[in-house]
Design goal:
The protein has about 160 residues and is an alpha/beta fold. It has one domain (about 10-155): Rossmann fold (3-Layer(aba) Sandwich). The chain contains 7 helices and 5 strands, in the order βαβααβαβααβα. Strand 1 (about 10-15), helix 1 (about 20-35) and strand 2 (about 35-45) form a beta-alpha-beta unit. Helix 1 packs parallel to helix 7, helix 2 (about 45-55) packs antiparallel against helix 3 and helix 4 (about 100-110) runs parallel beside helix 6 (about 135-140).
Length: about 160
């Protein structure tokens, strides 16, 4: 946690969604303005893949292929974050992890000693089940550091373009 000197390390939880990309632009701008370290994290959801295999929706070979596809997607999103950060002169560390999304993100944020977690907007739950089992919602509720949920579009673009 920050020790009175402000936010030193920002963790960015990235997914393949537009709200997540907005959060990336915001996190880059914030890191630049604060002089903070930025770490971008993408998690390959192998827990869901295992559940699909157990439910016989996938066979083992399909699971392996799908996992590789998700890893490639993750690298592509992390590379995009790296490009956004480099364009603004912000050093960024990227992490591609595998596991249950919320558990992996919460653990990584703790292990990194992040002072702030930045993530994209959380969709309005459609049911009580969505509220309790949505991975983003669980990350938000279980993180042990301050969490900044990024909303807006034009404001974020203007901030990013202005730094």
């Amino acid at each position: 946690m920050a020790d009175g000197h402000g936010i030193r390390r920002i963790a960015l939880f990235i997914e393949g969604t537009e709200p997540s990309m907005r959060a990336a632009r915001y996190a880059v701008a914030l890191a630049r303005l604060l002089g903070a370290e930025l770490v971008a994290l993408y998690v390959v959801d192998v827990k869901t893949l295992e559940d699909l295999l157990r439910a016989r929706i996938f066979v083992r070979m399909e699971e392996a292929g799908y996992e590789r596809d998700l890893e490639e997607d993750g690298r592509r999103y992390l590379n995009h974050v790296r490009d956004l950060a480099e364009a603004k002169g912000v050093p960024v560390e990227t992490m591609l992890e595998k596991g249950e999304v919320h558990t992996t993100v919460v653990r990584a944020v703790r292990d990194l000693g992040a002072d702030l977690l930045v993530m994209g907007e959380i969709e309005t739950p459609r049911s009580r089940k969505d509220f309790y089992f949505d991975e983003r919602e669980r990350v938000f509720r279980e993180a042990r550091c301050p969490v900044l949920v990024v909303k807006g579009d034009e404001e974020i673009r203007d901030l990013y373009d202005g730094v």
